[in-house]
Specification:
It is built from 5 helices and no strands. It has 119 residues and is mainly alpha-helical.
């Protein structure tokens, strides 16, 4: 599908993990993402980054996204945005319900993708 929809789906999977298991997300954000344990997860993170980079490149090829952006750096921005939303939820502002999660997915997707579209 379109690159924008792929970004939305990635956001839905990552942020939707909160609905499935908020306690696991808390552990991952507090204990893994910010600790030396992260080194043990590097391969999984690299695979996620490669997938995001492919989405950005595909969006550039279809002229959905700006050609002038570095796809790898753009992938890090997407990843970082998703991680920071989860971190915010863990640090005390969790979503109240499924609608809040859906709103976060839509917001991250819109902010990221509208920043990538052609001028």
């Amino acid at each position: 599908g379109p690159a924008r929809e792929q970004v939305r789906r990635v956001a839905a999977v990552v942020l939707g993990s909160w609905k499935l298991n908020p306690e696991l997300v808390r552990v991952l954000v507090r204990e893994v993402a910010r600790s030396p344990q992260l080194q043990n997860e590097i391969e999984e993170i690299r695979q996620a980054m490669d997938a995001l980079e492919r989405i950005v490149r595909r969006g550039q090829e279809t002229e959905e996204f700006r050609q002038s952006l570095n796809p790898r750096l753009a992938a890090w921005v997407v990843y970082g945005a998703l991680e920071e939303v989860l971190t915010g939820w863990v640090m005390g502002a969790p979503p109240d319900d499924d609608d809040d999660v859906a709103e976060a997915v839509q917001t991250v997707s819109a902010v990221v993708c509208d920043g990538l579209v052609l001028d």
